[in-house]
Specification:
The chain has a five-stranded antiparallel sheet with strand order 1-7-6-5-4, with no helix packed on it. A five-stranded mixed sheet has the order 2-33-34-35-36, with no helix packed on it. The chain has a four-stranded antiparallel sheet with strand order 3-39-38-37, with no helix packed on it. Helices cover 4% and strands 36% of the residues. It has one domain: Quinoprotein alcohol dehydrogenase-like superfamily (Methanol Dehydrogenase, Chain A, 8 Propeller). Ca(2+) binds at residues 198, 264, 306. Belongs to the bacterial PQQ dehydrogenase family.
Length: 575
């Protein structure tokens, strides 16, 4: 496979699919989802992307724990019927599981038995193309659920039957706009962000009325003329400056503030768009009622490495340096572990340190939190520049987790990967890739003598010290992490198809299970009739497969035939 073939391997030959079809009948006694339930979710459910608005990825269930996890066994599986990267968490509401898959599909299941209630299959356009043909889940509100589609629509489905209630076009997929995220639902608003920065679009976050799909507000992540931050762009660069917002944000219910991660500028080389380029590679604080930007923090300016920062920071209350801090914690794609302070009017820099090795940053300005760039490792036009980590960064979109019991942050990191490319200035053609370099010119390599690549890390955000680390000698780590009150850390993400559980305090590997494919999505935990379950989607593809092809196989010769095809796995303790 050539590098160009690798980079374009996100293309899937979509077939026209039938509309919603009920299988075993409607769901009886569905529990409507309210603001109160989302703000204070019952321990037995998993109704948001990371279970709670703060983004911790933590389950308070502890029936499965360090002493008995060795007895964890599959209790049911369900094949999704499609290939490519399965990245959505199974969403569970009082015994009903909703699973989103690639190819615009949502499946409703009995979360105890795996029996199917209904299945929605979207009819996707024949000419649809994007680099990430996936979905990261459905949002829940009242008696409906909401899907953001790869052909750039928001669709509301009846939760009991799967029938379409409304369907709203967001933007034009033919211009490179698409969506992959799980919508964030706040007080009856369906909030989404667009993908497509690699096609030279202008990023946005938008809200829709959950009842009828009417657009309520739209906030562009690249400020236009007369807006604060516009002066950080030159000329018309802002019109197609990137700044995709393609991951779900987190929400501070006390201050009514949404924190949303924003992607890198377009195209990649910073020379093509001089300036700091707000609000790319940043976190935005938004008013959910109006979409107004309250404040922001830019993780790094004038991005030139494809290091988007779309994974929203976790909202954690910390004791640090002798004071209480309402923090934003974000292990970044730029290889920096960020600790920020959120206030009603400002985001303050608190601390930052490399969690994997990097040659791009010389340090961080102590007052502003602005990283200091080493120009020798910043891509430019007409000259090949190498940098570490690679364009996938220290941690890509897969989410870290925070345990309220241990006080530690668990990071799915990648070490010993580097990259480089030669920047070029080319004209934008709507709907075509606009990277600022040729796909076949993207050089990816591993460090000489490297003895491992993936790292599951545990950090104390109050001290900045690493508590433990588990290395993966033959694989990247490309999967989200989930913590539980049973002092367990669950994660997939490796090319050996294993799903694993670690001791949250020590990092000891306690359990592993081979699955049908590789795992990129996040584990979830729920409880029915007194039994705790762990659920995950196994289904390799997209960036995990590209890393495997370009770095692991081509550079170091570790072959890993990771079969594609999605399967939902559900585990419980042996009776």
């Amino acid at each position: 496979m050539t590098r160009k073939q690798w980079y374009l391997s996100g293309f899937v030959a979509f077939t026209c699919l039938a509309s919603t079809a009920a299988v075993s009948g409607p769901i009886e006694n569905y529990a409507p989802v309210t603001a109160q339930r989302l703000e204070n979710p019952e321990p037995n459910n998993w109704m948001l992307y990371r279970r709670t608005y703060d983004g911790h990825g933590y389950s308070p269930l502890d029936q499965i724990n360090t002493s008995n996890v060795k007895n964890l066994t599959p209790v049911w599986t369900f094949a999704t019927g499609v290939v490519e990267g399965h990245e959505a968490p199974p969403i569970v509401n009082n015994g009903v599981m909703f699973v989103a898959t690639p190819m615009g599909q949502v499946i409703a299941l009995n979360a105890k038995t795996g029996d199917e209630y209904w299945r929605y299959k979207r009819q996707l356009p024949d000419d649809l193309f994007q680099l990430h043909p996936t979905s990261r889940g459905v949002g829940l509100w009242e008696d409906k659920l909401y899907l953001a589609t790869t052909d750039d629509h928001v669709v509301a489905l009846d939760a009991k039957t799967g029938k379409v209630v409304w369907d709203t076009k967001v933007q034009d997929y033919k211009k490179g706009q698409y969506m992959t995220l799980m919508p964030l639902i706040v007080d009856g608003k369906v909030i989404v962000g667009g993908s497509g920065g690699e096609f030279g679009v202008r990023g946005y976050i938008a809200a829709y009325d959950a009842k009828d799909g009417k657009e309520l507000w739209r906030t562009f992540t690249i400020p236009g003329e007369g807006e604060p931050g516009h002066d950080t762009w030159q000329g018309d660069d802002w019109k197609n400056g990137g700044g995709s917002a393609w991951m779900t944000g987190n929400y501070d219910k006390e201050t009514k503030t949404i924190y949303w991660g924003v992607g890198n500028a377009a195209p990649w080389p910073g020379e093509t768009h001089p300036g700091d380029n707000l609000y790319t590679s940043s976190v935005l604080a938004l008013d959910p009622s109006t979409g107004k930007i309250k404040t922001y923090h830019q993780y790094h300016q004038n991005d030139s490495w494809d290091w988007d920062e779309v994974d929203a920071p976790m909202l954690i209350d910390l004791q640090r340096d002798g004071r209480n801090i309402k923090s934003l914690v974000h292990p970044g794609r730029d290889a920096i572990f960020w600790v920020l302070e959120r206030t009603p009017t400002k985001i303050n820099y608190v601390a930052g340190w490399p969690f994997v090795s990097t040659d791009v940053w010389k340090g961080i300005e102590p007052e502003s939190g602005k990283p200091i760039v080493d120009p020798a490792h910043k891509p430019v036009i007409g000259k090949r520049v190498e940098f570490c980590p690679s364009l996938w960064g220290g941690k890509d979109w897969p989410s870290a987790a925070y345990s309220q019991k241990t006080g530690l942050v668990y990071v799915p990191a990648n070490e010993n990967f580097c990259g480089g490319f030669t920047g070029e200035k080319v004209a934008l053609k709507p709907g075509e890739l606009w990277l600022g370099t040729k796909p076949e010119d993207i050089g990816l390599k591993t460090k000489p003598g490297a003895d491992h690549f993936g790292e599951l890390q545990a950090w104390d955000p109050t001290t900045g010290k690493k508590v433990w680390q588990h290395n993966f000698p033959k694989s990247q780590l490309f999967g989200s992490v989930t913590a539980t009150a049973g002092d367990l850390i669950f994660v997939g993400g490796t090319n050996d198809r294993n799903f694993r559980a670690f001791n949250a305090k020590t990092g000891e590997l306690l359990w592993e299970q081979k699955t049908n494919s590789g795992i990129m999505g996040m584990p979830v935990s729920y409880e029915i009739d007194g039994t705790q379950y762990i659920a995950i989607q196994s289904g390799w593809g997209v960036d995990a497969q590209r890393i495997q092809d370009a770095l692991v196989t081509n550079n170091i010769g570790i072959e890993a035939n990771v079969p594609q095809g999605g399967v939902i796995w559900v585990f419980a303790l042996k009776k």
